[in-house]
Amino acid sequence: MAPRLPDGRTPLSLKAGGLPVRTAMVMAAGLGKRMRPLTATRPKPLVEVAGQPLIDHVLDRLRSAGIGRVVVNVHYLADSIEAHLARKASDLEVIVSDERAQLLETGGGLVKALPLIEDDRFLVVNSDNYWVDGPIDAIRLLSQRWDDATMDALLLMVPLARANCHRGIGDFHMAADGRIRRRKAGRVAPFVYTGVQMVSRRLLDGAPEGSYSTNILWDRALAAGRAFGIVHQGLWFDVGDPAAIRQTEALLLNAA
Q1: Exposed/middle/buried for 11, CB within 10 Å: 0-12, 13-18, 19+?
Q2: Quick one: pLDDT band at residue 14, thresholds 50, 70, 90?
Q3: Contact status, residue 217 vs residue 204, Cβ threshold 8 Å
Q4: CA distance 65 to 221
């Protein structure tokens, strides 16, 4: 019999024919400096876009995917995030990875949280993400594409031309088989990383402790040819500063 979540739902990835994705790591510990002054009194994950805190948008996507176990790291205004999760995510199994003593960035935060995650394969999502699913939702897309024999990381990408509110010049190139390579300095790359990825515990094998970016971990997977990408089928918004909130809401209204 197919395993089910406590509320009776079948994990979305199992419906798609793969192994279930049980756990998501939600990165919520950042300082939100670019979002000031809105983050002077609240952490960035609690900044509202389209009438809802950013982290709630992420939690809704996880619920839709049938993911019932969520590890959330906290640092800046951590009490506010914990209180919000207690009110808004009581239907989920929420486990806090406490970084109050030291902000560990994305890579170090993953390493600290790994004992709480337990699974061999799991989702990692930045809490300041805003995306709208297309014909195939993003988490299903990642789950369907995942190949444990060849991958340590599978990054959800969006074409630079569809990276709403994004002011960069792209992050990665992608080969026909999905393998990715970084943009060279001074050049433009066709794909932008969305802040959503599926990873194997192998990505963190031998990873150092302390504070550092996930880029350090990706570099090893890139060098080994085990870092892949897949293109998001819906809308994505880079909600990095207050101006981007207004732009995102206007674009969502026009798309409705």
Answers
A1: buried
A2: very low
A3: yes
A4: 26
DSSP string, 189-236: -SEEEEEEEEEEGGGGTT---SS--THHHHHHHHHTT-EEEEE-SSEE
Q: CB under 8 Å to 184, separation ≥6 — which residues?
A: none
pTM of the model: 0.90
Summarize the confidence of residues 231-243 as an average pLDDT.
Answer: 94
User: Cβ contacts of residue 198 below 8 Å, gap of 6+?
Assistant: 21, 121, 122, 123, 124, 142, 143, 146, 153, 154
2 or 196, higher pLDDT: 196
Q: Which amino acid, one-letter code, is at 13?
A: S
Helix (H, G, I), strand (E, B) or coil at 114: helix
pLDDT of residue 11: 46
> pLDDT, tens digit, for every residue of 154-185?
999 999 999 999 999 999 999 999 999 999 99
Looking at this protein, which amino acid is placed at residue 178? Answer: G
Reduced to 3 states (helix: H, G, I; strand: E, B; else coil), residue 111 is: helix
Can you tell me the distance from the alpha carbon of 203 to that of 216, in angstroms, rounded to the nearest whole number? 10
Q: Cα–Cα distance between 79 and 158 in angstroms, integer?
A: 33
